[in-house]
Amino acid sequence: MPRHTPATPDRAAPRFEHSVDVVVLGMGAAGCAAAIAAHDAGARVLLLEKADPAQAGGNTRVSGGAWFHHDDPARAATYLRALCGDRTVPEPVVQVWAEHTRTVSEWIESLGGRVAPNGNYRAEYPELDGSDCYGGYRCVDGVLGDRRLFELLTTAVGDRGIEVAYSTPGQELITDPSSGAVVGVATDAGERISARRGVVLATGGFEGDPEMLSRHLGLTDVSLWGSAAATGDGHRMAQRVGADFWHMDNMMAVNGIRPPGDRHGFFAMFLHAKGFLWVDQSGHRFVDECVPTGHGQARINGRYELHPHRPMHVIFDERTRRAGPISPSAAIMPVGWKVLVDGYRWSDDNQAEVDRGWIHRADTPAELATLLGLPPAALESTVQRYNSACSAGFDDAWGRAPDTLVALHEPPFYAYTAGPLLAWTNGGPRRDEHARVLDLSGEVIPGLYAAGTVSSTYSWAKDGGFHIADAIVFGRIAGRHAAERL
């Protein structure tokens, strides 16, 4: 009796219009890595990309394109276990991740890329066991972002003659009626494609799907840092053939500004001044605004929590407004959809964004509160107490570091509301060390694989460069395993 529910209701053998060995869905780092690995293992590969060529590649297109470096798989495995905490990841997955993340640079060089370090990046969780393995960022040409990794991978796909179908989302996985194995994909246009050896889901996260965000993360009306095409397509396809899920409540978010009416937003990094504070809808502070933060988590109240994870209002004054751009331009940080795809350059003094109405302006905190729909007296009191903490050099409310305590004295005052800005989600179909998708009983769904942010390894905290490394490692594993599957 088949373990998996077949997708063909009449139990007749499925019919196809097109046939290949391996179908890969998604053209980001994981999808390109899977397609390249499957091709190099002798398979005929078809890569289906949801977006058109100008927007293809998901978040990889606009990411930093960096992977972390290490030379010690044993210590890397220790670090990953510590980052997961009590949300343990199966040990075979940990071991494969630790061993293969060491070889990402070598593989990039095999594709013709020049690999070099970028910056002086240190472990974001230095207090955790194993963090000493962390060797910083590696990038194509040593350049962060600027599409370098995406262009290298797509060039490698093109050089191999791998067929790519743009503007072609997958809609349904096709299963064999007798075995339940995944044997193909139906596209949204109704074309049925046979995948003789396997299907690799590399469709990205669900950050672009409001219903899934509400159900799994409790977020509404969030702005996006990356591709809006990440709408959980692979999640739904996998669920319909019986896949189990993991990490669905994990994500990476940042403080960000979204222009009214836009789905995408900008990083808000305040690189030039620390004169700002965060308040909730009550008009009061709720956290240390400058707590050291990893890629999505910070140590708050003695434990690692998602950060930021809730809507908030960011308040600052005229001195901070003049100090420099809140959001870095491509010359400083060439990442993000608004910067790389839309080509927007933030003004040097933030005045253009104030004039556009992206940032509220008022002469007093009480007037600013009225614009934000906050209790005026509460916001006035919050600003006064914060300024007193700055004068004393001690934040008795939230323990903010003294060197970050810069008062808000100079009117006018400014504010914007952050959703927060969601970079990516982490959860999706549960998979094993071979990137094979598992069902609710922990059994392999034959012929189905997942890699990248559709099914991230990271159950909780994650460090810089981890996501690109994970996508490449398990993308390669998925493609090669599928190609060699009989």
| CATH topology (fold) name of the largest domain | FAD/NAD(P)-binding domain
CATH architectural type of the largest domain: 3-Layer(bba) Sandwich
Report the average pLDDT across residues.
95
Count of structural domains:
2
Please outline the major beta sheet.
Answer: 8 strands, mixed
Number of helices: 13
First-residue to last-residue Cα separation: 21 Å
Considering the protein shown, what is the CATH homologous superfamily of the largest domain?
FAD/NAD(P)-binding domain
DSSP strand tally: 24
Low-confidence stretches: 1-10
Structural class: alpha+beta
Q: What is the assembly state of the chains in this entry?
A: single chain
What would the principal axes of the Cα set say about the shape?
Answer: elongated
In helices, the fraction of residues equals 25-40%
CATH class of the largest domain: Alpha Beta
Radius of gyration from the alpha-carbon trace, in angstroms: 23 Å
In terms of DSSP E residues, the strand content is: 15-25%
